[in-house]
């Protein structure tokens, strides 16, 4: 669950995220100091996110790096590479020349 300071498209959908099947479920609790903590759960969020990334890739949008292997080019999203691989996370965050746009 992710912390949320507010969201559009509350229960029942309305935005691109959370408009899939299943209701979103906001939840509020207070910690031991009385500070209010809000969480938001949208079961379809991960599916929507992956579909959105696949669409962007298929349309060639927002691709910010090209991996070349045996002279074959593979356009990619740095953030996806970094999220899925310790190696790419290091390369992307260190600004090394191995990943150049």
TrEMBL record:
It comes from Pongo abelii. Residues 1-36 are annotated as: Disordered. It comes from the Eukaryota. This is Kelch like family member 26. InterPro entries: BTB/POZ_dom (IPR000210), SKP1/BTB/POZ_sf (IPR011333). Residues 63-89 form the BTB domain. Signal peptide: none annotated. The gene is KLHL26. Residues 1-21 have a biased composition (Gly residues). SUPFAM superfamilies: POZ domain.
